[in-house]
Amino acid sequence: MGRRKKEPKSVHRAAISSAAATLFSEKGVEHTSMDEIAKQAGYSKATLYVYFKNKEEIVSILVLESMKKLHTYLTDALQSQSDMYDKYIALCNAMLKYEEEFPFYFHMVLDEINIDFENTDYIPEDKETFLIGEKINTVIKDFLIAGINAGEFRKDLKILPTIFSFWGMITGLIELGSNKETYINQTLHCSKQDFLNYGFDTLYRSISVKGVPYEN
Amino acid sequence: MGRRKKEPKSVHRAAISSAAATLFSEKGVEHTSMDEIAKQAGYSKATLYVYFKNKEEIVSILVLESMKKLHTYLTDALQSQSDMYDKYIALCNAMLKYEEEFPFYFHMVLDEINIDFENTDYIPEDKETFLIGEKINTVIKDFLIAGINAGEFRKDLKILPTIFSFWGMITGLIELGSNKETYINQTLHCSKQDFLNYGFDTLYRSISVKGVPYEN
Amino acid sequence: MGRRKKEPKSVHRAAISSAAATLFSEKGVEHTSMDEIAKQAGYSKATLYVYFKNKEEIVSILVLESMKKLHTYLTDALQSQSDMYDKYIALCNAMLKYEEEFPFYFHMVLDEINIDFENTDYIPEDKETFLIGEKINTVIKDFLIAGINAGEFRKDLKILPTIFSFWGMITGLIELGSNKETYINQTLHCSKQDFLNYGFDTLYRSISVKGVPYEN
Amino acid sequence: MGRRKKEPKSVHRAAISSAAATLFSEKGVEHTSMDEIAKQAGYSKATLYVYFKNKEEIVSILVLESMKKLHTYLTDALQSQSDMYDKYIALCNAMLKYEEEFPFYFHMVLDEINIDFENTDYIPEDKETFLIGEKINTVIKDFLIAGINAGEFRKDLKILPTIFSFWGMITGLIELGSNKETYINQTLHCSKQDFLNYGFDTLYRSISVKGVPYEN
DNA sequence: TATGAATGAGCATTCATTCAT
DNA sequence: GATGAATGAATGCTCATTCAT
Q1: Rg of the Cα trace of chain A?
Q2: Does A182 touch chain B (CB under 8 A)?
């Protein structure tokens, strides 16, 4: 095992967390051992503990990274379109893109966000993750308000409950689309993307004043 | 140990799976050991293997049972109401009831159902579970068609995609409601049930011809 | 590894703790691994955990056992003699016998006895160990009082401080005798037993009214 | 790191062993890692191995240093008093002072000294430690002989055995006093120092011709 | 000389599963 | 049929030590 060149710590952390990400996606966090991560990353198991405090920290940093990316995807999606409906669809597809890139964290993100801030022992990454979560909420909130003001979305929408319920619904939709891709292909005779587009459209009607703009 | 002789095999399976169900709900499948199930059920650990091939089979039978119950809940919900909107709300609450009773299987049901029917090694219960899933689909399908025929639901709904997307969305909504109950209470200043009602209503608009009937 | 006959649990516990005792004496508790204990006892490592909750419990039971034996040795020693000096010497030799049989616990016993009875998590054996410790104190106390009343020991002795200081001194003497046996042999040109006898005698003068009865 | 160049090797050894001493006292040798020593000393872990062969050597040098200090304490104690009894008490308190300063080595000194001088692999410090031990023996020997010649100590004392047995007994007494300080406070209703004074006095009678001079 | 980097060997503990009786 | 007994295989984590630079 040739010793590596002097590379910054972040390079090793990236290599390790990347290896972990692959394995976590394949078999889940619980079923991925530090031994396996080490082997996948090409390090000795002990070396993992040079770069990370423990397994939990690897998970936390991965969740944080993915959340940051999600935030970027969502922001970019909204900026890429001007029409409200197009923004909505771009938003949904940004989440889809995220789910496809980080299948594992997609669901975890939901659970992890409830941090016990009383517990002084929590991993700093977790707090940052929570903060990014709040930023994401804000992004969607602004989008909703803009839509209402533009006369596109129903005036009687309750902002916060709408954000949360949409988050849950889109998340559930995408997760089902991915978990059951083959089943959908066989039974619905359409692609996962088609299925999701249909779902996104359907859901749009629940906030829209006038329904979906084009025929899908 | 004074255990009655000649109890039919099913009695023992029921006792064991019931003990397992309790523990799984409390601590999750992964964190429940066969040792604990045996103790809870009042059997020796080895005896568990007389009645079940392995731990996985216990899980499978439990998932099947829960699916059967879900089917009942859904059927009952539809029969308990005559109005379409009321049926819809009853349907949603039936799923909520299921989630609250079987929090653990709720999500699993999504993942586990993709059976490789080519694989001759699969657990028979899993096939039955799949079949119940199909029955559930039919129940919802009939509901949707009835709603369309009654002029309550949009005529342009595509039946199958609608069933699936609704399944995903309601599932996602309920799961978020449960995972983040405290967060919702604190941020939205409302109960989980209130939040979910709002979400159910919102979603109803996406299939309804005229929106929700009453003010909520 | 042929499966053993159905033997009572206590037999296995004895076999394991006995193997552990040997290794603990040879290399110390910290440097004895459960793996080694298992090998020495002829069991699989996992089997150890069938009979003991953890390593700590093995240590605790060993300490307790040795303490019980010490109590017996001391009681027997006192009963075996009628003369006070002879009782004293028998007492010292009982401790020596104990040290030779349980070299490892001899010192540990001193440390372990301070139990935090507030801590509800302590191992039950530790409490019993403490109780035996108290019984041992009583045995020595009665001996001291009897000696004073018989006019053999100084009337101005403070019972409790005398017990404790004698315990410390005899313990220290014996431990030194054992740790440095070869050195003693070479430098003092006498056996460990001779050396200890001299020490016991010397110490006797500090409580005796008239000094040691015979010439040593 | 701005470390001054050309510091003699001994300076680094002192800095490292001093850091180690602090940590060893706080948490014990076994529970102090080389990592912690390095951090405490402000060196890189690898640097420790430039100045010391291994962890054991750090311990050895520390034991040696402490022994040197003990020798000084004992010599000073004897010179500080003229009366024999006072010298004896000063001697005991010198050992107590040593125990309180080097709790960790106090007991170790007993065990470690048995060097296998045939073994060419031993650490040189250990030999020096042994030599200091011999010097300490001589100090006490001279004290004993002086006491005998002064008519204070019994004429029939065998010098060497008395030295050794006193060493063991005082050592044992002090160790018990320290290990069980709280227990002594609670049960004997006196301070550790009071208890030890009583013990020292008691022991004095075993060598003294006439008993302890004052009432304590 | 000083150290950043890496790791082999080890450890206590857990658990699903097997099998002789 | 029921089980007491036993265990192989893991798992997360630690640490003294080595070595190329």
Answers
A1: 20
A2: yes
| pTM of the complete model | 0.87
A124 and A20 together in one domain? no
CA dist., res. C165 & res. C186, Å (int) = 29
Closest Cα of chain C to D177: distance in Å? 8
In a shared domain, residues A71 and A165 = yes
Q: What angle do CA D89, D91, D93 make, to 5 degrees?
A: 70
Range of the domain at C114: 60-205
C172, exposed or middle or buried, with CB in 10 Å at 0-12, 13-18, 19+? buried
In a domain, D214, yes or no: no
Same domain, C66 and C10: no
Q: For residue D196, give both structure tokens.
A: 């030890």
Nucleotide nearest to C5 (CA to C1'): F5
| CATH code for the domain of A125 | 1.10.357.10
CB contact under 8 A, B180 and A204: no
Check if residue C43 sits with its Cβ under 7 angstroms from strand F.
yes
Distance from CA(A36) to C1'(F4), angstroms, rounded: 35
pLDDT value, residue C8? 79
Do D169 and D135 belong together in one domain?
Answer: yes
- H-only helix segments in chain D: 9-27, 34-41, 45-51, 55-80, 84-101, 103-112, 124-149, 159-179, 181-188, 192-204
How many Å apart are CA B158 and CA A197, to the nearest integer? 13
Is B214 within a domain? no
pLDDT at A111: 56
Neighbours of D88 (CB within 10 A): 26
Nearest to A164 among B113, B176, B205 (CB): B176
Q: At what angle do helices D159-179 and D181-188 cross, to 10 degrees?
A: 80
Same domain flag for B70 and B106: yes
More confident: A90 or A213 = A90
- C215: in domain: no
| Helices (H), ranges, chain B | 9-27, 34-41, 45-51, 55-80, 84-101, 103-112, 124-149, 159-179, 181-188, 192-204
Q: pLDDT tens for residues A7-58?
A: 778 899 999 999 999 999 888 899 999 999 999 999 999 999 999 999 999 9
Tell me, yes or no, whether B211 lies in a domain.
Answer: no
